[in-house]
From TrEMBL:
Gene3D superfamilies: 1.20.1050.10, 3.40.30.110. Residues 2-81 form the GST N-terminal domain. This is Glutathione S-transferase family protein. Pfam families: GST_C_2, GST_N_3. InterPro entries: Glutathione-S-Trfase_C_sf, Glutathione_S-Trfase_N, Thioredoxin-like_sf. It comes from Stutzerimonas nitrititolerans. CDD domains: GST_C_family, GST_N_family.
Length: 312
């Protein structure tokens, strides 16, 4: 039984989502701190080029994107459920909206000059320049661009009003009942991001019902974790074998089959392709086999939704 290893850094909003998912599941995990900007040589030895944060490692299996990480953790421990029975579609759909629409608005608001001045007040100027170039590159080859700041400010009251409406239902303290689910954690990490400076914190605190709900979601914590060196995580992958492939039978709508050489990348941003042998194409998941001189043979897992696959 391999340990759960999360590759992340403290200020990443999607990493906070993953940490909360682990805490909600009351799972023990190992923590590998990665650089917030490229290059990330230890991470990309495992992923083959995927650079977004976070990444979950289980032995020689590497899971990209928190949408898929959530499903892997659900398989690891079924209860408490991230996808509540009878609300699976609604919870997943709201989570997708939060991870895309809400998150991109939060990014625009957080990256406004006044907010960034506070965030980087104690950071060397050289790193600020590196960070800015890195984030510009992150959006360079994808299908979306940043939301203009004026537009984000205009939209924000609408987004919060809809969130308040969902929370006002008499069906429990959370978005879909008495316990948090994948939708709560997907919305929460965006608002956690905004709470990072006094410039953007009022965008949450000015909505008391939302702020109270956020406090409850963040209160689940991060579970039990211990630090692990990145080099040791790569060595662990090299000394492990990928898990057995899923037994799901699924016909890919574009005709992709196991054994093909393909490239997979995110469709929206951070569109760095990972090239390898397609070994599984399911309804929700795509798995590539690749070999790295440091990590050995690994299986890199991607969600189907939000990713592109092309023949090589």
């Amino acid at each position: 039984m391999h340990e759960l290893i999360l590759h992340h850094y403290p200020t990443s909003p999607f990493a906070e989502k993953a940490r909360l998912l682990l805490g909600f599941k009351q799972l023990s995990w190992r923590s590998v701190t990665i650089p917030p900007v490229m290059p990330k040589p230890d991470l990309t030895a495992l992923t083959g080029g995927y650079r977004r944060t976070p990444v979950l490692q289980v032995g020689a299996d590497i899971y990209c994107d928190t949408a898929l990480i959530a499903r892997r953790l659900e398989a690891e421990k079924a209860t408490p459920a991230l996808f509540p029975e009878g609300q699976e579609f609604n919870a997943a759909a709201l989570a997708q909206w939060a991870d895309s629409v809400l998150f991109l608005h939060a990014v625009s608001l957080v990256f406004q000059p006044e907010s960034m001045a506070v965030r980087f007040a104690q950071v060397p100027k050289e790193f600020v320049e590196i960070f800015s170039k890195d984030r510009a590159q992150l959006f360079a080859n994808g299908s979306i661009s940043r939301v203009p700041l004026e537009q984000a400010k205009s939209h924000w009251p609408v987004l919060m009003a809809r969130l308040r409406q969902q929370l006002s239902r008499d069906e429990g303290e959370f978005l879909f009942g008495a316990a948090p689910c994948i939708a709560d954690f997907s919305v929460a990490h965006c608002l956690w991001f905004l709470k990072g400076t006094p410039v953007t914190a009022p965008l949450v605190d000015d909505y008391p019902e939302v702020a109270a709900w956020l406090g409850k979601v963040l209160g689940v914590g991060h579970g039990s974790h211990k630090a692990l060196d990145a080099v040791d995580a790569v060595a662990l992958a090299r000394d492990s074998e990928p898990a057995q492939l899923p037994g799901e039978v699924f016909t890919d709508p574009n005709g992709f089959e196991a054994g093909q050489q393909v490239a997979i990348c995110a469709a929206d941003y951070g569109a760095d392709p990972v090239i390898g042998e397609l070994v599984f194409a399911g309804a929700e998941e795509l798995i590539l086999r690749r070999e790295d001189e440091r990590a050995g043979v690994v299986h890199v897992h991607f969600p189907r939704l939000g990713y592109r696959i092309e023949a090589r």
